[in-house]
Amino acid sequence: MSPELGRFALALACVFALAQAILPLRGARKRDRRLMALAPGLAVGQLLALVAAFACLVNAAVTDDFSVANIVENSAVSKPLLYKITGVWGNHEGSILLWALILGICGAAVAGFGRNLPSALRARVIAVLGGVAAGFELFCLTTSDPFDRVWPAPLDGQGMNPLLQDPGLAFHPPVLYTGYVGFAVPFAFAIAALIEGRVDAAWGRWVRPWAVAAWSFLTLGIAMGSWWSYYVLGWGGYWFWDPVENASLIPWLSGTALMHSAIVVEKREALKIWTVLLAIGTFSFSLSGTFLVRSGILNSVHAFAQDPARGIFILALLGVVIGGSLVLFAWRAPSLTTGGLFAPVSREGALVLNNVLLCSLCAVVLTGTMYPPFMSLLFGKTISVGKPFFDAATIPLAIPLFIFMGFGPMLPWKRAQLWPVMKRLWAAALATLVAFAVSLFGLSGVLPILCATAAVWVIGSSVTDIAGRIALFKAPLAQSFQRARNLPRAVFGTAMAHAGVGVTVLGLAAMSQAQHRIVEVHVGQTEHMAGYDWTLTGVKMAPGPNYMAMEGTIEIRRHGHLVTVMHPSKRSFNAQNQTTTDVAIHTNGLSDLYGVIGDKHGTDADPTYVLRLHYNPLAPWMWFGALIMAFGGALSLSDRRMRVGAPRRAPLAGTVAAQ
Amino acid sequence: MSDEQQRNNVTRRRLMMGLPLVGAGVCGVAFWKMLSGMQTGAFNPHDINAPVTGRPVPDFTLVDQPPGTGFAAADLRTLKSPVLINFFASWCIPCIAEMQALLDLQKQVPIWGVAYKDKPENAAGLLKHAGNPYARIGSDREGRVAIDWGVSGVPESFLIAPGGLIVWHSAAGLDNEDVRTSLNAALTKVAR
Amino acid sequence: MRSLARLRCVLPLLAVLLVAAPMAALAVDDPAEMLPDPREEARAEAIGAQLRCLVCQNESIEDSSAGLARDLRKVVREHVAKGESDRQIIDWMVARYGNFIRLSPPITISTLLLWGMPLLALLVGVIAALRVFRRRSTPESAPLSEEERARLDEVRRDA
Description:
Chain B is of the alpha/beta class. In chain B, 45% of the residues lie in helices and 17% in strands. The longest helix of chain B is centred in the N-terminal third of the chain and has 38 residues, at 3-40. Chain C has 2 domains: 31-101, Cytochrome C biogenesis protein (Helicase, Ruva Protein, domain 3); 109-158. In chain C, 48% of the residues lie in helices and 0% in strands. Chain C contains 5 helices and no strands. The relative contact order of chain C is 0.09. Chains A and C meet through α8, α10, α11, α14 and α15 of A and α4 and α5 of C.
């Protein structure tokens, strides 16, 4: 398990990936079954080699092998075992290796689950994934080698930023990367379809589960990142509109659009070219977002140590992957057939509208993120684009999206009438009206009121949809239950995911009403905020394994009854000469009580402490909604139609093969 | 539909399908320019570019920072020859790093220092230790004068032309070759 | 010429982060800097939320614990206490630090594309969608062949 073995395994994986990129593609072209049949084996071989390489790096981290530069820079003997393992992907080199590993898993997954695909299509999809993987592995080997040795080896490493030593953050990158990299599969399907010159209903059905899976992971990954910043950074915020966050939001928006437009391809054989473009675009955004952030072009703290060679290599890789696929698109897409009758008021019409709004949102976030560097490059002017802009520009686009989300899933395909659907939604409409009245009374600000109302509408219509389909309260309960069992899981999945969006938005709207107060108090002093009495009852010094903590005790009472006792603390890490705040959060599901302890003022005989107290209504709902969304995605994936019912493709006769 | 119409349609379709490529190409070229600009220093995404050059110096008064004497806006407005204003602090590593460059530079142009958010004894200690390049030194204990100058961090330097006009500004250390070159160019221009 | 790796001292030297959220997070602030009048304090916070902390990332000065952000917070509160308008205070800041300090850039010719993007994107999208509806409702392609029809049926049955 030496680092050299790891590097060798990585090189082997790269060779496998190159073979995987070339041989099956050639086989598909020459209709050579033997060459095509190599694809799954090569994909699995590449994965095994990557697993070996990754294991070597983990081994080096766990055994404190300080002859490896990457371990010296990011680990230390005193670091807990968990963070030694997760620290492997907490740096540039390791994260690229993880990225390649996940790409390898995707390739092997297509090899494993794609048995019902036509052999040529499967060979091409796996080949494209192999090509992308080869690029990353070359990048890893040439400019970001995680196995580089140092001589002489130091006795101890430089340690890891204490803020990163957190379970939430430790598992955030793998989930997020699985989301990003997962979109490589729809991308590969799009490229394969362009090579074949054929997109049809079957293609739509094959792409959809991969898009749903990637989307679910991306949703979870974004939520985890936001949750981490909420409970670690300690100022009650959860989203900064930082370029790094936008880089994950942009593919999420386009990926959401992709997931929906693929349905239209499947059911109506329409929007084919658009869906192919979205598949290419989503993966391109995933790639370029993360790497632009790392190159330091976007003004973000997350930029890794800048190495010009790296930047150029990344740009070249992006050029080959994105540029190459768009050249292919420009060349082949015009020959793809279009078809299907379209009526504006219909399920497909609603899905088109969904795509228009999601892509507009995507364009706004993209423009806002990229505007400062472009302004600086073109006009030499420096500007900032932050929260006030994004709030003002995105919310007015999001609200119509929420409104149409309510109608969409209830409209029948082809030709629909609005009125019958509206009648079925009367319960949701009633709930929305009540919500509007309540928020008029309880919330301040126009946008929060509109968002909260729209959120209730989304949740209400999702529930009404399911209730209507199973004839709840209209038929005997047993019969409703039977209907529910027969209802496809994908229908439940859709309703859940939509309701999840509603829950998140409700949380966001309520959080705009959060209250906070900064106070300086003596021990024993009570502050009143948001209907609670917050009393600092004591402060003590508590030594930790590699830090010293000042821990406060805050008793929170409501009408004299003790609600909770919380222990926020402030940790000073000697090794890094850094302090972190350890937030105390008490949640009851409806609101968070959030306490932070700060500086000690006054004399030692009569000390005072600065406290920051937050009351965050519905805060947990923001992340809970994301969980529901991801669960909805998983539920859709478990639908047997997604897995086994995939249609067999008809023989090519009649359709236009590429020129 | 006539043949010509159909052909027009096909051409338009082809052009449309090429649009994403064109867009990506433009972005690619821009990113390449940014990356290469970042290497030469021509492009810096972290630059604030405070709009100070070409303006008269703001109103301010600075108290003495031993071993030097403080100064005020009026002193700069009545100048007969250019002066370099340099914001520094003893707690700032790049400031200490540029001290040698300042000591060399003071032979060319007088440098007036501003100790930014620094304890007087610490600033004095630094100058005793590293040498004193400053003709006059004022203390900006609260950092409020710095805000009027558009200073976002230390070190930061301004070239003041006779009459009190800010003609050149850099937020980078003067130990940087490129920064000194551009300062020299500004100095020659003022001298002319 | 404008600075190579510009090491700014005010920026706490933080290890570089991989994911999510900027650093230099808010430690607890000094309550002494808050204005006594809650309405004025709320106005100061609203103005502060529009101003970018110059030495950190996309954080506003209200959210940052950097020293300069704290100074600027104080300045904002002084000006609010003097009874200046929001506009005057933001202009004061822009005069010193340029438009970089505004988290929401002013609408000028050069930011027209930025501010116009929501409308532009929506317009392009709606026009494209209308074309799709119009084109598709007049069948221009040849009628389906037997095989295609069979496949379509198969697909629909599965759905």
